[in-house]
Specification:
By secondary structure, the chain is mainly β. It has strands at 2-5, 9-14, 36-41, 67-70. The two termini are 14 Å apart.
Length: 75
Amino acid sequence: MTVFTNQPSVHIYVGGNCFGQLKGKQGAEYHRYSGICFEAQNYPDAPNRPEFPSAVLHPGETYEQKTKFLFKLTN
């Protein structure tokens, strides 16, 4: 998998808190390694970190985020 984004960072989530409580198709149980999420975003905690670029969107400004995931089979 290759990720292309105009965002400066990626936050990664995993299913660590599922604890077998979530049910999927045909009653399948989700466990802590059942999934992963890649969230392209601005720098975490940017509003509180003056050394980071600003993440503030002022009235009248436009925010546009682009992220593309490319999946390829390799041998």
